């Protein structure tokens, strides 16, 4: 019998880091519950010494094992695991039959390299979102770097199965697409328009095809309400008239 898993995420459902973990759990066929809260308030049950993540106070985090308890009363008998990529590898280990991490060492290394590239892309995307104009070219370079790591044929980033590389990349691609589509953030709106043009360009055709396939998967649709996400994003970060 599977041990209990509780995923802790943001109340607005916008965090790409939480989305990574949610996608991996869904693809693994795991039974889990999700508790979303305003993590900026730093509740003691989350950040306190006996809390879910006393180390950084960040999401995502999961509790694994221990008794079934209310999410705001984490059991000392459960393991507390944080950082999205650490959690992804943990899920792959707990559910080996899901093939979220290949058995072949070379393929496993490629998965991890892609995850590193996804983190680099995410960093550039957030810098751009916060208004750093110099991050625009870094963002484009990051998109091209991801594209170069993808196979010329096939649905997945590595091999013939969905892996944690796909779970790592997809939410970051979704964030970049949302920045371009909503033009919401602190960046120059002209750069947002240029980003949208780049995403439609032939230069990024392979990446665009890959992202489209990932976002058409049933588990992505379970995890992401695209219309709601864009509405909340524009509401929180849209430009004043």
Structure write-up:
With 241 residues, this protein is of the alpha+beta class. The chain has two domains: 94 residues, Glutaredoxin; 133 residues, Glutathione S-transferase Yfyf (Class Pi), Chain A, domain 2 (Up-down Bundle), CATH 1.20.1050.10. It has a four-stranded mixed sheet, covered by helices on one side. β1, α1 and β2 form a beta-alpha-beta unit.
Topology:
Elements: E1 5-10, H1 16-28, E2 33-37, H2 44-47, E3 61-64, E4 79-82, H3 84-94, H4 105-129, H5 135-149, H6 164-182, H7 189-200, H8 205-215, H9 218-223, H10 226-237
Parallel strand pairs: 1-2
Antiparallel strand pairs: 1-3, 3-4
Helix pairs in contact: 1-3, 1-6, 4-5, 4-6, 6-7
Please provide a brief summary of the model.
53% of the residues lie in helices and 8% in strands.
User: What is the C-level CATH assignment of the largest domain?
Assistant: Mainly Alpha
The total number of structural domains is 2
How much is the average pLDDT? 96
Question: Tally the helices: what do you get?
Answer: 10
């Amino acid at each position: 019998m599977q041990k209990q898993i509780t995923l802790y995420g943001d109340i607005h459902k916008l965090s790409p880091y939480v989305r990574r973990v949610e996608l991996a759990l869904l693809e693994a066929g795991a039974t889990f519950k999700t508790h979303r809260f305003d993590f900026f308030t730093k509740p003691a049950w989350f950040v306190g010494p006996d809390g879910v993540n006393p180390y950084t106070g960040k999401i995502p985090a999961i509790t694994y094992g221990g008794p079934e308890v209310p999410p705001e009363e984490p059991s000392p008998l459960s393991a507390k695991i944080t950082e999205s990529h650490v959690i992804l590898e943990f899920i792959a280990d707990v559910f080996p039959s899901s093939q979220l991490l290949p058995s072949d060492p070379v393929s496993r290394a490629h998965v991890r390299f892609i995850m590193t590239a996804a983190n680099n892309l995410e960093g550039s995307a957030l810098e751009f979102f916060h208004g750093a104009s110099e991050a625009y070219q870094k963002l484009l370079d990051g998109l091209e770097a991801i594209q170069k790591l993808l196979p010329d044929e096939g649905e997945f980033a590595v091999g013939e199965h969905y892996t944690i590389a796909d779970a790592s990349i997809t939410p970051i691609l979704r964030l970049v697409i949302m920045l371009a589509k909503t033009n919401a953030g602190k960046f120059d709106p002209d750069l947002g328009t240029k980003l949208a043009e780049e995403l439609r360009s032939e230069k990024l055709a392979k990446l665009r095809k890959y992202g489209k396939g990932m976002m058409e998967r049933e588990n992505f649709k379970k995890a992401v309400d695209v219309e709601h996400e864009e509405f909340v994003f524009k509401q929180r970060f849209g430009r004043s008239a």
